[in-house]
Amino acid sequence: MRHARAIRLGLLSLGLIAGPVLAADTVIYNNDFPDGKVGSTSGSANGISTETADDFVLGSTTQITSGSFTGIIPKGATINSVGIEIYRVFPAGSNNPPSGKVPTRVNSPEDNAFRETSVSFTPSLLSNNVGTANSVVNNISPGLTGGEGGKNGQEVRFDFTVPNLVLPADHYFFVPQVELSNGTFLWLSAPKPAGGEFGSTSISPDLQAWARNKQLEPDWLRVGTDIIGASVGNFPNPDAQQYNMAFRLVGSVVPEPTGIVMLVAGLIAVGAWSQRKRI
To answer: What is the pTM of this model?
Structure first.
């Protein structure tokens, strides 16, 4: 009986520990402030699949519960599905050395997704007609293209929730995947995140956005440096071409299992000692 009471006390304590931690969601990363400089495709339509990635950092094991990202879709397009992919930084989970077919894989996403999942989402129309100064849609292959020119469409923010996405501490890339009935989803760029600016969350090091299509896999190209080019158009400064993308992540830190076990074991021991003292 004494042991049963002690075990119940331990399980109750575990529930009290885990509950508040998982419920205390906070903004982990926020740079969902589009600047209209570029739109880069990330998703699938008409049998064409592409990915655009931008990075974030987790200092502790974290459960991602929700977030948002912003882009443009063609007027009249229907959103069929939304998913997200998580990549680590190369060379994690990748063939190394790489193929050598792209200028570099340093600071790129890894070869294959570390995590991928469909999400529940709510689209919000922010503007019925928004344009980008430049775009990356079809010409994703080694060699500078200068981009594919400005694009227009409906500006939409996708607020999403995701179940059971727990990530250990690491440096990651976030990839939204939007499937449309027709046309292409373009993920909008955002200013380089600087803590406090527009409410953004800075990270260090901050890696630029990368993109690839099925033909380029498993390699990636830098949206600014490798595809658009550092001295094309109105952006002669190389730093101006190192684009970031508009997204936000919300979640909660997951306590280390060892710490929980030790704490619960201690509580069980205290409960057992307390019961013994009463006899």
So the answer is: 0.83
